[in-house]
Design brief:
The protein is α+β, with helices and mostly antiparallel strands. It has helices at 55-137, 139-143, 145-175, 188-197, 200-206, 225-241, 316-326, and strands spanning 2-4, 24-32, 35-44, 184-186, 209-212, 221-223, 248-255, 258-259, 265-266, 268-275, 330-334, 346-353. The strands form 4 sheets. The protein has a 5-stranded mixed sheet with strand order 5-7-10-12-11. Strands 1-2-3 form a 3-stranded antiparallel sheet. Strands 4-6 form a two-stranded antiparallel sheet.
């Protein structure tokens, strides 16, 4: 703080053209902590105007001005930061929107390709399948082991191709929200036993034990039987594919209430498909339900859908999830990780309500019609 009672008598003073009549001057620092923000300069035309006992009051004023200046500086800083942040958020949001739109276009293109390709393949596939069947029924061909071998090979190939086309069509219907499901009373334990019979030859070749428990007490549910067959067919294919020779697969079920997407708790059932296979790494346990997802290098997969780590279209579990969710159900997987030596196994949990909504509709992501 500096007080000059009469600047006219101070040789250091340089007259100010804007205040030519100044006689007394008081200079007070504007401080925030150890920082000096500026100086408060008070001038008077009367000599000795600022008495020593008045200086504390003026210093208090200077302190308040310093606080106001600091607040203004901080406000400007925050405002500039917010403007910069808003601009960056807007830019990022636009980038994300563009990326999301691009992903949607790519996904639609992929879905359109699946739909077109599968429909275009149906006609020639039907012709090949029909002719291979005719060959197999021809007595001359059946009598010739050489020709019979080729005819059987053609039929196996067309059957495999038919399965791929069917899966492509199912995925296309799920993606286009045109999956048709017809609810009716369904005995799940019986359906599971029927589905398991389709794998007897593969299980015997691989020496894998498949145990379907009696599931006593599991009530009937309201569901589409054909769609549910696909659910458990694909789950068992997956279990066999990733279970080493000599392993075991168990299917069990129990009554268990479940919570619907709208928060309601309803009566339901839980089916568990457990295997002693190589397990699933935690980081891909959600990804395995995405269409076309493959573990490992696709081109290195062996042929045959039930061969150990055999190849596939990558559509099976996506179809499973789509059908289960269309029935207002849920599916999840548990596995401690992937290990081809210890084989920790995997457990797939499918929760389904006993009854579909009273209005007869399935999950609103899909279309249920007759």
């Amino acid at each position: 703080t500096l007080v000059v009672p009469d600047v006219r008598k101070d040789p250091r003073y340089i007259p100010d053209e804007k205040a030519p009549h100044t006689c007394c001057e008081l200079l007070l620092p504007l401080k925030m902590g150890d920082r000096v923000l500026g100086v408060l300069d008070l001038q008077s035309e009367r000599p000795g105007r600022y008495a020593p006992d008045e200086i504390p009051a003026f210093q208090l004023l200077a302190d308040q001005i310093a606080v106001a200046l600091e607040n203004a500086r901080l406000y400007a800083q925050v405002k500039a930061f917010n403007q910069e942040l808003e601009q960056k958020v807007a830019e990022r949001t636009q980038s994300l929107q563009e990326a999301y739109a691009q992903l949607e276009r790519l996904d639609k293109t992929k879905t359109d390709f699946i739909t077109i390709a599968s429909h275009e393949m149906l006609t020639p596939l039907t012709i090949v399948n029909f002719n291979s069947q005719m060959f197999l029924e021809d007595e001359e061909i059946r009598a010739n082991s050489y020709y019979l071998k080729w005819a059987e090979g053609i039929q196996r190939g067309t059957a495999r191709m038919q399965a791929v086309v069917d899966s492509m069509l199912d995925v296309a219907k799920i993606d286009s929200q045109s999956l048709e499901l017809y609810p009716a009373p369904l005995d799940l334990p019986f359906l599971l036993r029927q589905v398991s019979k389709r794998f007897q030859e593969s299980l015997q070749e691989r020496q894998i034990k498949l145990v379907v428990s009696p599931m006593v007490g599991v009530p009937e549910i309201e569901a589409d039987a054909e769609a549910m067959q696909k659910v458990f067919y694909h789950l068992l294919v997956n279990a066999i594919k990733y279970t080493p020779d000599g392993g075991e697969i168990r299917v069990d079920g129990r009554p268990l209430p479940m919570q619907l997407a709208d928060g309601r708790t309803v009566d339901g059932v839980e089916i568990v498909v457990a295997d002693t296979g190589i397990g699933i790494a935690p980081e891909i346990q959600d990804l395995i339900f995405e269409k076309f997802f493959q573990t490992g290098e696709v081109m290195l997969h062996s042929s045959g859908k039930t061969a150990f780590k055999g190849g596939g279209s990558g559509l099976g579990l996506a179809i499973v999830r789509g059908i289960v969710e269309a029935h207002h159900g849920r599916i999840r997987v548990e596995s401690t990780g992937h290990d081809e030596d210890l084989c920790p196994g995997s457990r797939f949990y499918i929760n389904l309500p006993l009854k579909q909504p009273a209005d007869g509709s399935f999950n609103n992501t899909f279309t249920a019609s007759r």
